[in-house]
Specification:
Blueprint (H helix, E strand, L loop, with lengths): L1 E4 L2 E4 L4 E4 L2 H8 L7 H9 L5 E9 L15 E4 L3 H12 L2 E2 L5 E4 L14 E10 L5 E2 L12 H16 L5 H4 E7 L1 H7 L37 E4 L12 H12 L18
């Protein structure tokens, strides 16, 4: 078992862990004939979720929030409530840019001052309710006819910054630079972010638990001895814990069987 990279082959004594999407593993990385055709077909049908967008903002000084308690909070979520977030998700699913996006505002410099020059600040903004292929704008303000052009990305970023400015009025006067990473940019920078999805695939029921990453394997072990599939596209899904890697590592080091879930045929029904 080994991995080829740049014309070189690196051989693994015991296992290779592939932290990639099913699209990449079965459609690109493994040669034709290495696995059953059914697996490749399932991988082609693997669905990806909503796209994400990132905005990085350099500030001359920290924000002055209307509520001063937010000055020391590293992650702030701006929303009008669960109903507003639900509407924004539905708009994005329909291919529309949300009128009132939910904004994740990262102020990591409050925990690590070395991230910014003395006295300065920076914002890491995450938008998780945007379409990869926009069909329109819910607010009727932005032209989406050409897709994610630099002008569209900047226009949507302005909407996001204006939403923050309602809670931090001094934001416009402190902005030094803005870097916008639209969904296609995210895909180009990270092959695992297929269609701009940062979470490795939709986590609806039929792509979770025994059905993740694919219905036939239903586990981290693959049909190829020594090759294991880990990452957000596998059970238990996206998150910050690295649980899929831990499960496989536990299996390899202790012989536990956590990473070997029972196979489930794509046509088998669950009763109950």
């Amino acid at each position: 078992m080994g991995v080829a990279s740049g014309g070189r082959v690196f051989r693994a004594r015991r296992a290779v862990l592939a932290s990639v999407t099913p699209t990449a593993l079965y459609g690109t990385l493994l040669p034709q004939g290495a696995v059953r055709s059914e697996l490749r077909d399932e991988a082609r049908r693997f669905r990806y979720g909503r796209a994400a967008m990132q905005i990085h903002v350099a500030l001359s000084q920290p924000l002055g929030w209307r509520d001063p308690r937010l000055n020391t909070i590293p992650i702030v979520h701006l929303s009008d409530g669960s109903g507003s977030t639900g509407i924004a998700c539905a708009e994005a699913e329909a291919g529309l840019l949300p009128r009132r996006p939910t904004v994740v505002v990262g102020q990591q410099y409050v925990l690590d001052s070395s991230r910014v020059p003395p006295g300065a600040a920076a914002l890491w903004l995450q938008l998780q309710e945007v379409p990869f292929t926009p069909r329109g704008d819910s607010a009727g303000e932005l032209d989406t006819a050409q897709g994610w052009t630099p002008e569209l990305a900047q226009g949507y970023a302005d909407r996001v910054l204006n939403r923050i400015a309602r809670h931090a009025p001094d934001l416009p006067g402190k902005v030094l630079a803005v870097d916008v990473i639209a969904p296609p940019d995210l895909t180009r920078r990270n092959p695992n972010a297929v269609d701009g999805d940062p979470y490795g695939g939709s986590v609806e029921l039929d792509q979770s638990f025994l059905w993740r990453p694919l219905p036939s394997p239903g586990r981290h072990a693959t049909d190829i001895r020594g090759l294991w599939h880990i990452g957000a596209s596998t059970h238990p899904g996206p998150g910050l814990g690295g649980v899929s890697g831990h499960m496989v590592a536990t299996t390899l080091t202790t012989g536990a069987r956590f990473a070997r879930l029972p196979r489930l045929s794509a046509g088998r029904r669950i009763r109950g």
